[in-house]
Structures are given as C-alpha cells and as structure tokens.
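Troubleshooting log. The previous run stalled partway through. Resubmitting the same two chains, unchanged.
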Amino acid sequence: MAIGAPCYIHGYSEDEAVRLADQARTLADLLHHDTRYASGSLVLEAGCGTGAQTREIAGRCPGISLVSVDLSAASLRGAKARGLATDLVRGEIAALPFRDESFDHVFVCFVLEHLADPEGALVALRRLLRTGGTITLIEGDHGSCYYHPATPAAASAWGALVSAQQAIGGDPLIGRRLYPLVTGAGFADVAVSLRQVYADESLPGVQDGFVQRTIVPMVEGVREPNAALGLVDSATFEQGLADLRATGGPGGTFCYTFFRATGVKRG
Amino acid sequence: MAIGAPCYIHGYSEDEAVRLADQARTLADLLHHDTRYASGSLVLEAGCGTGAQTREIAGRCPGISLVSVDLSAASLRGAKARGLATDLVRGEIAALPFRDESFDHVFVCFVLEHLADPEGALVALRRLLRTGGTITLIEGDHGSCYYHPATPAAASAWGALVSAQQAIGGDPLIGRRLYPLVTGAGFADVAVSLRQVYADESLPGVQDGFVQRTIVPMVEGVREPNAALGLVDSATFEQGLADLRATGGPGGTFCYTFFRATGVKRG
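Second attempt completed without errors. Output:
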C-alpha cells in the first residue's frame, strides 16, 4: 500500500475485504444492536468501504433508504461486486454532492480514525442532516488494547500499527475523543457508550473471530508500511505477531474497546 | 509509607480510608451487583482492608456469616473503628488459621494485585472452600486506563503508580491474568466479566467520584514512593497529576476496567 497518500491504512486487498467481513460478523451485535432507524428514513452512511457495516445497518432497519458514500472507487466496486444493493456514491465526506438538511440520519463506522480533520468532517455531516436528525459514530481505540501474555515484541508490533496510521494523518486512538469531537462539531444530547471485547480460553469463538481473524490480520496488514517507515525491525515485528496470536490461544487473554457515540442536530 | 516491606502500596492513612470509602460507593453497583450468597452461607473475605468492600457484600447478602481477614492490624483497627460488625481475623492469606473445607464461599477484592504469589494464595484459599463452593475475585488492571487529553506527563505519573507497585512485588496489571490464574489454581467453571468505567462531561458524577476522588488520589498516594524509587522527576509527576485531573473535567474523558472472576471448587 502507498504511504503518504490520503489512503486507508489497512489497504484494499481481497484479504482485507475478508478480514472486514469476518470482523463485521463477530462484532455485529456488540456494535449495532441498538442502532435502529424508522422505516421510511433516509440514512447516509459516510465511509462505507466494501459495505461490511452497511449490510448490518440495512439488515437491522427494514424500510430505510440508505445512501452509502466512500472516497475509494475500488471499495465501491468491491461493495457492488458483493451485491450491496444500497445507493453507492463516490465522494469526500467534507464535500459530498448532497443538499443541506437532506438526510434523517447519518451513520459513520470506522472512518473518523482515518481522517486528518475529523471535526471538520462532523461539521460537514451535520449540515447534511435535517434538524432533529441524528448521527451515530462507531470507532475503535488502539490504546484500549491489552492482553496476556504481554511481551515487549507484541507491544512493538501493536505500536507499529498505531504509528503507521498516525504517519498518514489518522488517529487510531480516536475512540476516547468521540465525546469532545461530537460536541465540538455542534451536536446536542451527545452520548457515548463503550463496547468491550474480551477473549479467554472459555470463549473460543471470540479468540478465533476477534483475535485471530480480526486483530492479528490488522497488524499483519501494516507489515509493509512498518518496513517502509522503518518503525520496528522485521524480526521483532514477526515475533510480535506470533506473540499476539498467542494471546488468542491457550492461557491467553485479549481486550479491546469500541466506542459508539450518538448526537442530535438541534435548530 | 515504607518501600520494600510486604505492604499495601496505597498506604494506611485516614485520607486513604476516605478514598477507599468513596471508591466503594461509586463502584459498588458496577462491581457487586451480581454477587449474592444464600442466607446461612459462611463466607470468607480474604484481604478486607478497612472494610470498604466488606460492607457492600454484607449489605447485599442478608443472613450470611462473614469472616474478614487482613494482614494489617492497622486496617483491622480501622475497620473496627468504622463499626464493621463482621468477624475480623488477622492473618496472611497463604496461612490462615482455618480448617480445610470450612467455608461455603470466598470473596477477594483488590487484593491479588498486591501479592507476590497470587496463584499460591488462590491455591491456599481453594483448600479452605468446601467442595462445590465458589470463589469471587475482583481486581483492577492499570493497563486498562486511558484518557483524553493524553499527555506525556500524565502517562509518566500513571507509569510511576504502576512501577511503584511492581517494585514491591505486586502486579497492577493483574486483571487480564485472572482467567489463567484462577484456572491454574484448580478452580472449575471459571468465568471472567469486565466492568468498565467511562467518564465524560455528560457524566459529572463519574468524573467526580471516579476520576477526581478515586484515580487522582491513588496516583497522589505514590508521590513519596515515586520520589524514593527515583521513578519520575517531581515536576513531571506533579504536572502529570494536574493533567490527570483535567481528564476528569470539561472536554476530558477517562476509561478504566475492573475484572471480576468466579470459579467453583470441584471434588
């Protein structure tokens, strides 16, 4: 993947699309169980990627009209190839081709972390909402991640993931900032709730679905950026990956927290 | 406080007792809402300190007989002075003056983190349980703490808290290890659940009760150990304390996770 371009840190490969679909299935209930839009609502999904979360929202909210936008033509082609039936529009969040006040709700999942100006994006999205409309945001926070055994190599590999995303202008620690960001962008009634994922040996489905098939591939995904940026030497990085895999196996534990924020546009 | 002695890192002062009582009130429901022992049960509380958690358990479980032990005579005197009505016994967890299999349940809260051999303590406590009896453990994990704004000084002050506790043989990151520790000590049906505390401006009670009156005083409590151990220079430590206070005020956010584990003694 290109470093320095305004791009998605995890890349656009087929493997990455599989990782995102796995992640969506494992996390779907945890993240989306309380996202419900009334039938007839016009909902904007800002930053749909290949549609992993789009499907979740569409499936839980029958009768809505969903418009999904993304900056990447390749992601939108992937979404179409996977049969995504919603309207797909290419565009940048800060300059979308929609009239002000034209949406009932806005949904944003795993997107703000990749933007250089997340508050500017929120201000732009607020303009597109009708008065009384809501925004829902879901983001991770890579500083919420801890595990056992906690080895220095694992911490280095995880740190490479964080640094690589920061190097291209993203904020992988954005979850904890959602409340001040959303209030700062002018939304009212802002409420944040945390969704924590925990895995130990008694939860093999979470160890497999989350640690082995979501977290480890995400770190593997920065192998090249890590080398290109000279962050962590290759041997340490590979050892760190092995150590992270071990946290999702016998005797291991793993914790990660997602943040969900909602806000309302007042007149 | 003395460094190097087998002591409680947070000290035994009156301020510390007030901090513990505040902490207990704020966290009581989060930590203890699902701890219920049948009337008539004989319950051992291992490491009762000044009785902050003892009261919670006794209040929620009418009709139980509670025996509370602690290593510190000063803590037991404090517990008595505060009117704690349960049986109080001085002793070390690994060598308590009770017959094997004499308790129905064992309750341990904020204790393992201070022990050099937590698994040994769990094995000793398992001996005191009757077959079919349960153990309940509640511990923090200082690696689960993150906040906004995240300043280097705040990280240094928090790191001093972690290092000071490690320097006297404790493990302030023990929460994530509860599952392997409790299974390793021979308990069956081990289940771990996480209790996350989150504070932002919309939750002033949590900002005050948890950040300002629990977290900040806990870090303040290692001011002297920090100096004695030469961990973080005094100016950085004080700036870090100020920065941590700010995470519990306007625009700030704060996260911390407690771990609760239960296990059963099988024959």
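Takeaways: Residues 1-7 of chain A have pLDDT under 50 and may be disordered. Chain A touches chain B at residues 141, 143-144, 146-148, 150, 173, 176-177, 179-180, 183, 190-194, 196, 198, 200-202, 251-253, 255, 257 (CB under 8 Å).
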